[in-house]
Specification:
- The chain has about 140 residues and is an all-alpha fold.
- It has one domain.
- About 90% of the residues lie in helices and about 0% in strands.
- It contains 5 helices and no strands.
- Helix 1 packs across helix 2 and helix 2 runs antiparallel to helix 4.
- The relative contact order is 0.09.
């Protein structure tokens, strides 16, 4: 019983605690947040490229497992084959896009949004006083 509880706790820390810690560090900003963002961007980008490479390789030299789990495009009509190809490549393309965004984005982008909100908040009273002056 004690081993079961420790196993559940360890799995919870690995699959829930560590990702939450990573997101917290990334969102917190600073140099550490930027480094974490770039590391996971590189990992996401490389995994996406690897998965696309694996799928393309298996289209031309399919393994038994690949044929058993997916229909190859050569056995289907063109519409069905393109639909299955889009489904196969949706996740890796998303991973490449997210990885590239995290690698190339700067930390200033979220600050610009907060500056816009701050400037909107400061401009509202000024507009309110102008409109009350025009009404009176």
């Amino acid at each position: 019983m004690k081993d079961t509880i420790l196993t559940i706790l360890a799995i919870s820390v690995i699959f829930i605690g560590i990702p939450l810690l990573i997101v917290w560090v990334k969102d917190r900003g600073g140099l550490i947040g930027l480094v974490v963002k770039r590391i996971f961007g590189a990992i996401s980008l490389s995994f996406g490229v690897i998965i696309i490479g694996w799928v393309v390789y298996n289209m031309f030299r399919p393994t038994e497992e690949f044929e058993a789990s997916f229909f190859t495009s050569f056995r289907l009509d063109k519409v069905t084959a393109s639909f299955f190809m889009i489904l196969r490549l949706a996740l890796p393309i998303t991973m490449i896009g997210l990885g590239w965004h995290w690698l190339t984005s700067t930390r200033e982008e979220p600050m610009k949004e907060s500056e816009n909100k701050a400037s909107d908040a400061t401009s509202e009273p000024a507009q309110g006083t102008d409109s009350s002056a025009h009404q009176g």
